[in-house]
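With this grant's support, we have paired protein sequences with backbone structure tokens. One protein thus recorded is set out beneath this paragraph:

_____
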Amino acid sequence: MALNNTYEARLVQQETAVGAGVQILLLALLGSAIGMGPAGWLTGLAFAVASWALLSLALHRSRLRSFGPANRVTLGRATLVGGVTALVADSFQDSPPLTLFVGLTAVALILDGVDGKVARRTGTSTALGARFDMEVDAFLILVLSVYVSMSQGPWVLLIGAMRYGFVAAARVRPWLNTPLPPSTARKTVAALQGVLLLVAASGLLPRPANAGVAALALGLLVWSFGRDVLWLWRTHRATRVAPAVVEPMPRRELVTS
């Protein structure tokens, strides 16, 4: 049994190594296609190494016996996000080919709706898979906000930084880690962030319109986070203020003479 578990753990870890290899292959293809500079190469390689290391550590801690089809989809999406990250880093020197940039980002956003469905249909939903999916989403939003901020201003960075700011705040205020109830509105706002930022990044609209699209994304995100933080604060306050227990008055016996 111990040998089987060790063998399965090695197979799971091999999948992350394959993912890192595919990431490097994608960087090589991008480099040969557009002549990517050192900034793009270094950023892409850093993303590949960091994602491989963090995912391998998470898999080791979770002791998953199988990587699962849904995680493979998410890993493929992470590979695309690594390519987008390299293109954005390279854009500080030269603008990336718009078709290539939009294509990679669009496929990554489309696959965001695939891995969850695969997990549910195959019965392979795990806490690690959900966290993996969420982190890939958050990093793509951060990268897109960096790209859009180069044309619209640093205020767009608030979109990508908001989730990481929330995580940092939760370390100081642990009540922010309380599980939130399911919300269709929250999921919709999260899904719209990538779409709206991609529209703003594509340059297909006039600059004022792109600014309006980015502002809409930020406004929706502020509303969503604000609503959740308010719910968490009220829940935390309700648990701290316990209702007072009223002691019943002792009954007086009727004394007759």
Summary: The two ends are 84 Å apart (CA to CA). The chain is about 80% helix and 0% strand. Helices lie at 2-34, 38-62, 69-90, 98-122, 127-152, 157-172, 184-202, 207-240. Residues 207-240 form the longest helix (34 residues).
